[in-house]
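sry for the spam today, last one i promise. struct tokens for design, 254 residues
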């Protein structure tokens, strides 16, 4: 308990790099209202490097910026990225560390075969590593319950949580892992919309095969939630009506 409290105050006092400004002119309310989960992606659209880094940057916890202002603990989730079509980045597996000081644990817990090449083109405060180059679409699809959405977007990801580090001493931290995953999901949904793309949370995935693929043994790390982002197919059969439109129609026909 004491350990977790100390970490909370550490977050509040940590100097955090600034978010990179975006180009989206839509307001938060518009983005929130237009947000939908993509049902399918076009398999061709990619994301430009700047938008990709901005999106990753938005997942970093910052005091005073929603939803991260609701987080009182140090981040425990890191992003294992399946990069398919990101401008200037070779397809493959990448890792974004969201906590300073997490690298030693991650290196010790993940396959010794990973390259751990720092992506030097990324903003310096993004701890982004190229782990393995190659076409990651089939792996992403299979690991996310054979869902095409994990392979047909610009990239998809698994949220890897530091599982044992705090939970052995403070099991109640378990729920915080899922709160953090949910906040990451909501951030990704809205940032995808702001980038002119679309996201989908993926709750159906095979955790043990994910762990096998990246060499996790034991419970030091666990995959908790997946997500995918890309150019969505829009289902023209779906209609968008104003809230309570059915009541307006009923009144008009009275
Ligand atoms: C935690 C969570 C897990 C989800 N898992 C999947 C999934 O595995 N596959 C999928 O196609 N959609 C998945 N979705 C998307 C939901 O199907 C979608 O959010 C729901 O149908 C409501 O649609 P909306 O997001 O457009 O409001 C998930 C959404 C959430 C929040």
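last one done:
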């Amino acid at each position: 308990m004491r350990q977790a409290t100390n970490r909370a105050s550490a977050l509040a006092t940590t100097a955090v790099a600034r978010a990179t400004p975006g180009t989206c002119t839509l307001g938060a309310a518009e983005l929130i209202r237009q947000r939908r989960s993509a049902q399918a992606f076009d398999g061709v659209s990619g994301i430009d490097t700047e938008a990709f880094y901005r999106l990753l940057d938005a997942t970093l916890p910052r005091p005073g910026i929603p939803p991260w202002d609701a987080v009182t603990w140090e981040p425990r989730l890191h992003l294992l990225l399946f990069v398919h079509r990101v401008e200037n980045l070779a397809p493959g597996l990448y890792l974004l560390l969201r906590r300073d000081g997490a690298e030693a644990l991650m290196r010790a817990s993940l396959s010794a075969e990973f390259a751990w090449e720092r992506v030097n083109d990324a903003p310096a405060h993004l701890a982004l590593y190229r782990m393995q180059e190659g076409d990651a679409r089939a792996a992403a699809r299979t690991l996310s319950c054979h869902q095409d959405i994990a392979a047909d977007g610009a990239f998809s990801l698994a949220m890897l949580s530091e599982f044992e580090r705090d939970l052995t001493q403070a099991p109640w931290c378990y729920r915080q892992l899922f709160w953090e995953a949910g906040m990451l999901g909501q951030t990704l949904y809205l940032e995808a919309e702001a980038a002119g793309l679309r996201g989908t949370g993926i709750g159906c995935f095979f955790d043990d095969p994910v762990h096998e693929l990246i060499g996790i043994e034991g419970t030091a790390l666990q995959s908790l939630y997946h997500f995918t982002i890309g150019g969505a197919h829009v289902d023209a059969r779906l209609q968008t009506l104003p809230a309570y439109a059915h009541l307006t129609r009923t009144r008009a026909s009275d």
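The two ends are 62 Å apart (CA to CA). ok im logging off now
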